Amino acid sequence: MRLKEQLNRAIADAYAKAGIEATPISVNEAGKPEFGDYQYNGAMALAKQLKQAPREIAERIVASLDSPLIAKAEIAGPGFINLHLSDVALSAAAQEARSDERLGVALKHEPIVAVVDYSGPNMAKEMHVGHLRSTIIGDALANMLEFLGDEVIRQNHIGDWGTQFGMLIAYLEELGEAQTDSLRDLEAFYRAAKQRFDEDSAFADKAREYVVKIQSGDARCLALWRRVINISLGHCEEVYEKLGVSLTREDVRAESFYNEHLPEIVQTLKTQGVATESEGAQCVFFGEDEAPLIVQKADGGYLYATTDLAALWYRANVLHAKRISYVVDARQSQHFKQVFATARKAGLVGEDVLLEHIAFGTMTDKNGKPFKTREGGTVKLIDLLNEAIVRAKEAIKKSGEYDEAEIETIAKTIGIGAVKYADLSMRRDMNYVFDWEKMLSFEGNTALYMQYAYARIRSILRKYGKAPEGEIIVTDALEHRLLVQLLRFEDTLLEAAQKAMPSYITSYLYELATLFMKFYEHNPILKEGVDEKVRQSRLQLADLSAKTIKLGLGLLGIETVERL
Q: What is the rounded CA–CA span in Å between residue 26 and residue 184?
């Protein structure tokens, strides 16, 4: 049940009944309970257009309102309308949601193909903390869109073409078959190969020659190249498994995948008059104050922009995507702005396709500096995740008694969940401070607080031992507020998916958990003397709250624990 949709429909019907010829403004959630459950401010905006006082317009709207969802509409101030929802309607909707595995969230009427491009690790290097945000934000977006009914195609765009790969396979060949175990330490292997490239001109020439051989299909060079790529992807898969994201080997679309299309892309840009020659290179110009987008170098070589344009063409015309989302660092904003504009102008992508750069800020330490090791090096992502699990073990040992098997399982869920939740609870377009103490706290908007709230509710239901039944009835304002919050889940999810903002879901879940805790504190459930119908109702509210928390966290890629 979409509360906003129903309320907006009721407002639109009131406009028609009152003879108001204007487009209604959407209702807003009320900031405080005394302002009702939702507030409508449209009368204020209509005053100038209708040449009437806002309060008079509000009175016309209220007099024409007729919806079983609205129990009361009050005019406040100069023309605000406070909407109070019906307990009966809320109760019926909550019972319906509780019996539905999707908790009442409808599938889209017109699903689309959506491509989500995320993670993008470097080949021949291990994933580092710089890959964390793209990976988990992208995965959350893909999960949300998929749950709402879109056909989601995950794409892991990796760079596997260029001079560095000639360097790596030349060094691998030099080591010989017996030494290929050295590839297991990718960082050391890369550094050694780079040192040879920088210090030995003959080796550097050989590396450049091998790049050409890879691109021309030389069997020996391709075999060595594939070995480097496969071992690199193996490291990535280890991280993905521990992180609990849904990317697989099948989702990888490397630069080499688009290689055969690059000449066609450049030719299309030239034919359409989008690219022009400048000092032997093919460039797309945007204005005097903006650097051009180079799509082909003077020596005939292609660049990242060319591959990105080919990927856009492929996703729009072969995969038939109507939404293409790139979850990439905000520092790449100018690049994507130019690439998207070029693709549109050249007709590589139709106007009906949404192109969006899902930009995100950087992760810093407590001093606001890039997150580094004590030695100043880049933190490997697998090391960060392992440390999260170790720290989670220490945190949960203080909160209860568990056997060793439980500790291992719970610590992984808590530790990985804490890292992901801390990131996703921040607006993605902002930088955020990585703080172990804060993310592993039982207080505030943290994964541990959410895990504890869920486990607390599950313990209540286990203690009762049976499935609750009967009707959901509202006995006070707290129960009313909890119902309203529970039924806002669908609206929250739709907005989070539309704007690619996972933080909308974390904020919603935190408000829900906090409200449930207040409800539980003031409204006894299992205590002796509670009326049985009231007990059954409150048990159902508890059950729906737990299910909503679990589903919401699950869409963010965070598991729950039954006991904490």
A: 56
Task: Tell me, letter by letter, the H, E, C secondary structure of 235-269.
Answer: HHHHHHHHHCCCCCHHHEEEHHHHHHHHHHHHHHH
- Write down how long the chain is: 564
Contact (Cβ atoms closer than 8 angstroms) between residue 224 and residue 539:
no
Span 432-491, pLDDT tens digits? 888 888 888 888 999 999 999 999 999 999 999 999 999 999 999 999 999 999 999 999
Strand order in the sheet with 354-360: 252-254, 151-158, 113-117, 323-329, 354-360
Structure tokens at 507: 């904020």
368 within 8 A of 224, measured Cβ to Cβ: no
CA distances from residue 385 to 86, 114, 353 in whole angstroms, order as listed? 47, 29, 37
Dihedral angle computed from the Cα positions of residues 475, 480, 483 and 489, in that order, rounded to the nearest 10 degrees: -170
Residues 135-183 have pLDDT tens digits of 999 999 999 999 999 999 999 999 887 778 889 999 888 887 555 565 6
Euclidean distance between CA atoms 341 and 348, whole angstroms: 10
Rg of the chain over Cα atoms, rounded to whole angstroms, equals 28
State whether the Cα torsion 372-376-378-381 is positive or negative.
Answer: negative
Instruction: Give yes or no for a contact between 556 and 506, defined as CB atoms under 8 angstroms apart.
Output: yes
Beta bridge partners of 85: 70
From 335, 424, 399, select the one nearest 134 (Cα to Cα): 424
- CA gap 302, 345 in Å, rounded: 20
Beta carbons of 236 and 127 less than 8 angstroms apart: yes
Asked if 324 contacts 330 with a C-beta cutoff of 8 angstroms, the reply is: no
DSSP of 120-132 = -PBTTS--BGGGH
Strand blocks (E) in 319-418: 323-329, 354-360, 363-364
* Contact present, 501 and 531 (Cβ < 8 Å): no
Query: Domains of the chain (ranges plus CATH)?
Result: 3-85 (3.30.1360.70), 163-243 (no CATH), 381-555 (1.10.730.10)
Q: pLDDT per residue over 505-533, tens digit each?
A: 999 999 999 999 999 999 999 999 999 99
Give CA–CA dist 348/362, Å, rounded: 31
Question: Could you tell me the two tokens for 101?
Answer: 């595995």
CA-nearest of 467, 468, 474, 469 to 90 is 474
